[in-house]
Amino acid sequence: MSRGIGQWRQATLVEVWLRDGTVGYGECWGPPALVMAFASLISEAYVGKNLFQAFSVRHGMMQQFYHVSSGLHEALAGIDIALWDLRAKVQGVALNALLGGHQRGQVLAYASAGYFDEHDDQAAFERDLADALSSQFTAVKIKIGRGVEDDVRRSAAARRLVGPQGILLLDINGAYTPAIVADLEKAVHALDPYWLEEPLPPQDEAAYAHLRCGRKVALGEAFHDRHPFKRLIAAHAVDVVQPDLTKCGLSEALAIRTLAESFGVMISPHVWGGAVGLLAAVHFVAALPPHPWATDSVAPPLLELDRGENGLRDEINLTPPQTQDGHLVVPTAPGLGFTPDARAIARFKEVG
Ligand SMILES: [Mg+2]
User: Fold this and answer.
1) Options 1.20.1600.10, 3.20.20.120, 3.30.1240.10, 3.90.1150.10; which CATH number does 97-329 get?
2) Domain 11-93+342-351 - what CATH class?
3) Which of 75, 143, 184, 313 is 20 to 30 A from 271 in CA distance terms?
């Protein structure tokens, strides 16, 4: 991304056991050491509780540790996802049924690709992007944010590859100021990007509130709970909210969804972790009500499908969701539909 080149990924896989041996799976974003420090503090509180008492355990933890954010929220998010997986398994239904009901059997995915690397080679960028699209995706997101001239070069290549009817998304990772965003907007206007993602640093809510941008602004992967979303939505500073379920948890994401719906704002979860986080997002998007109300054919909800190399996503699930014509097929097995590959998980544990 524009702020630096990531060399590895990390995630924490959560298992929650019921007394009868049923296992629920969750995933936490970020450094496992940080997550595990909090997990050891909070996990005891869940022991002996039933699946519905667990809602108030999470609430109690957020009250007790209200001055803590990073680490705690991720640990709670992973446990929360695992508990939702269990609730659906106990009911014998796919998770989306509990998140508002099954709205669609497949979700439109955008290929998240076009990353920066050490070589900065335009031909290699285009080759990788073409591979990532592999002719079936009709939507693509690329990284920009290293100067407008370079942005135009990359964006033009991506537009050419995704085609004139395709959806082009540009992710700046918070690298610009409002003045540079104005230049960017002008420079890429003819390429018709569908949204600009994190054009400004996400912490600078005031700058977002004053940004005059003719494109949709997408934002939210850096937030841990509903409050920044509430402030930005109320200030009409965001068009697409992007909670990361492995940071917020599903319960909090449902609150963010209600906020978004109430203000006519779109929602598209940020997904950049492992197999469980991806499945949670697939079910979340599968359960989104049509937007606008009557139909989602105008603005179908989008699922982020990272196309970078990632064993935590591709190797630990024996029943990965299938890709079909640029869509992900929503699993129908009870719960998330995650089938852990114990050997692959052990391999990644050793790396971590
Ligand atoms: Mg992003």
Assistant:
1) 3.20.20.120
2) alpha beta
3) 184
